[in-house]
Amino acid sequence: PLAHRLGLPLVSDACARVRDGAPQASLPWKERQANIRHAFECRLDLSGKTIAVVDDVMTTGATLNEFARVLKQHGAARVQNWVIARTLPN
């Protein structure tokens, strides 16, 4: 895993998706925000931690923003989004 190659701890089960919705790729930006709202839940106290979230593609950022919101609710001091690719708006 990337975390091990960078010498960072890997915690892949701290949070989970708890609500399914329509596939984000099929929705316009505003609907993506509503579709992903309250879709994640964390089980750990992340107080004071810096969290790196790795994702393959970022389009609108709605999923990453919602995930960061939940991480911060559980105490994360800082959330970094690391993405492999970013789609460009038309």
How is this structure best described in words?
It is a single chain. Helix content is 27%, strand content 27%. The model has no long low-confidence stretch (mean pLDDT 90). The longest helix is centred in the last third of the chain and has 12 residues, at 62-73. It has one domain (13-86). The protein is of the alpha+beta class and 90 residues long. A two-stranded antiparallel sheet has the order 1-2. The protein has a two-stranded parallel sheet with strand order 3-4. It has 3 helices and 4 strands. It has helices at 2-5, 29-36, 62-73, and strands spanning 15-17, 40-42, 50-58, 78-86.
Question: How many distinct helices?
Answer: 3
Structural class by sheet pairing and helices: alpha+beta
Number of strands: 4
Strand order, sheet with most strands: 1-2
Number of domains: 1
What characterizes the major β-sheet? 2 strands, antiparallel
> Compute the gyration radius: what is it?
14 Å
Per the principal axes of the C-alpha atoms, what is the gross shape?
globular
- How large a portion of the residues is in β-strands, by DSSP E? 25-35%
Mean pLDDT: 90
Helix content: 25-40%
- Strand/helix succession: HEHEEHE
pLDDT < 50 stretches: none
